[in-house]
Amino acid sequence: MSKLKILLKNLGPGLLFASMAIGTSHLVLSTKAGAQYGWVMVIPILLANILKYPFFEFGIRYTSVTEKSLVQGYLNLGRKYLWIYAFVTIVSTFTILAALYVVTAGLFMNLFNISAMGVSAIALCLFAFISAILIIGRYQFLENSLKAVISILFIALIITTVLVLQKGPVPNIEAFQRPEIFNEVGILFLIGLMGWMPTAVEASGWVSLWSMENLKTMKEKPSLKLALQEFNVGYILTALLAVFFLIIGWMTLYVTGTELSGSAVIFADQVVSLFTVHIGSWAYILIAIAAFATMFSTCMTAHDAVSRVSIDVLEKLFPHKKALKNKNTFAMAVLIMALINWVVISVFGANMANLVALATFVSFVMAPLIGWMNLKTVMGKDVPKEHRPKMGLKILTYLGIFFLSLFALYYCWMVLN
pLDDT tens digits for 324-334? Predict the structure, then answer.
């Protein structure tokens, strides 16, 4: 079997990472970056992807070598570090899925012109459908189905990007003034863009758990080199899709003076509508499929990840609880996550922005610490010296921690002033 065939066969955690990462950070933030500031925003997008790479790579590296999750690695560092990660996970549990499902439900309503049902009712249908997929199909079905979803999304986005480039940029209005990037509004947008690009650092624990599940499906354990190659394919795909979305925003909205909505749902609908005006109504289905496939696959992977990481954290914190080792624990976790987040949508719908702001604050502030924990874990005694990161990757890691620390400090300063 050729190396390419082996690599494609082993596609798993990297693919799931790509699927999870290309949610609102790509569909909304990358597109809005191009729409508001033009091509120059490719620099912070690529910079964020490069500087955060080691933290996610360590999740694959640690699990591939030790066959243990990154959560176990945190426990090995000391129980207090596991509690820190548990705190971040709790905040994510009550916010991240609710936010993703609200955007997906609203997008579904807008794209397919469904007004008879409310966002809460459609979100409930999505929760039920995705929960059934995860419980019945488990990891292997998730992996196989996402290969199809990501393929459709990638093809739709390539066609969309090519069409946009062929058509060329929209004509600019005479009164258009290029917005400042380095004023308060611009810097706050940069913080949001780079903070969520490609995704939050705590997702490194999710990647580690997918790597463990992937190992269970293998007849023969893949080498560290192959595991990292597979992840790199997914990571590069993630960065590439971010650039595609930026191009779509830049070519269809930049210099038009269009007022862009702060709502993710309305903004996504604006992009679809303006794109069809720019290219033609026949192309509506392409961008509609790309937009919905983006959010649906993100909901599915995030739901799976939050359920898995919650179980793993609880198992490590309370090792004597037999209920956590039951074969139905994963199914229960998926249903509990669905119920909790649907209640959050139904009860706190009007305050969702505040809940997401809380999750954003915790994620940004904790990012440098989790990045450092990942480095300490992969440099630990249970990882042989030959499998530890080389000097170049360590230097990139320290640069990333420095970058995240400045980011967190400035974000705290802006929030508290």
Answer: 667 789 999 99
